[in-house]
Write a structure and sequence with these properties.
This protein has 217 residues and is an all-alpha fold. It is built from 12 helices and 2 strands, in the order αααααβααααβααα. It has helices at residues 2-8, 11-23, 28-35, 40-73, 77-102, 112-115, 117-120, 122-130, 138-149, 156-165, 172-206, 209-216; strands at residues 109-110, 154-155. Helix 2 (11-23) crosses helix 4 (40-73), helix 3 (28-35) runs antiparallel to helix 4 and helix 5 crosses helix 10. The model has no long low-confidence stretch (mean pLDDT 76).
Length: 217
């Protein structure tokens, strides 16, 4: 058979025929029927080889290339950290610019009268919301920062840092930290109450009985 010798007459032509069938260069069914007169075993081996190349080998090679491409597309941790620091620095600068605009007298500090613009100015609140800052109670926030500062006016840098800490949602760690601080505060209050009770007891014992009778008379 001239066609059989043409496509399977040597190792080279056989490999080339398998390459055509595996890569879509030609339809494998024609070659299967061409091999049929040589025996069923040859047809089965041919079909298995083509099927294995299509289903297994090509999928494995495709998976390897896709995995490598995904790994190359993912930036390393150092690049992600640098990008996050850059974004935080840009956000802090934007917040500082907003606070400097609120600082009407140019003192470098913010009073409640100046900061109250956050609660009344829709544009300022929108800008803060876009930055991920949602100040539902501007007065309470200002009082908390002021109490930690111990002054009637808050420095712009300090207020900027406080706003940056407000960015994002509260994590489980934040909730646990607040709960732990509340627990410590409760423990201190209990110890203080015990100390006050001991002081009262000692004071009562220190008063002489005669003096008590004198006071009673």
């Amino acid at each position: 058979n001239a066609q059989l010798r043409k496509f399977f007459g040597s190792v080279t032509t056989t490999v080339l025929t398998f390459h055509f069938c595996s890569t879509g260069g030609d339809d494998w069914v024609d070659y299967a029927f061409l091999l049929y007169p040589t025996g069923t075993v040859n047809v089965v081996v041919f079909m298995f080889t083509v099927s294995f190349t299509h289903i297994a080998l090509m999928n494995i090679l495709t998976g390897i290339f896709v995995e490598k491409a995904i790994q190359l597309a993912i930036p390393d941790r150092k690049a992600l950290a640098q990008e996050q620091r850059r974004l935080d620095a840009a956000l802090a600068q934007d917040l500082r610019n907003i606070l400097e605009e609120l600082d009407v007298d140019g003192s470098g500090t913010i009073t409640w009268q100046e900061f109250s613009t956050v609660a009344s100015d829709t544009m300022v609140r929108t800008l803060l919301n876009v930055m991920g800052l949602d100040l539902r109670d501007a007065k309470m926030f200002f009082e908390m920062v002021k109490s930690s500062n111990g002054a009637a006016e808050i420095d712009i840098s300090l207020l900027t840092d406080a706003l940056m800490r407000m960015k994002g949602d509260a994590t489980g760690f934040d909730v646990q930290a607040v709960a732990f601080r509340t627990y410590l505060l409760g423990q201190r209050m209990e110890r203080l109450q015990l100390q006050l009770a001991n002081i009262d007891t000692i004071g009562e014992r220190a008063v002489p009985t005669s003096c008590t009778q004198c006071l009673g008379s």
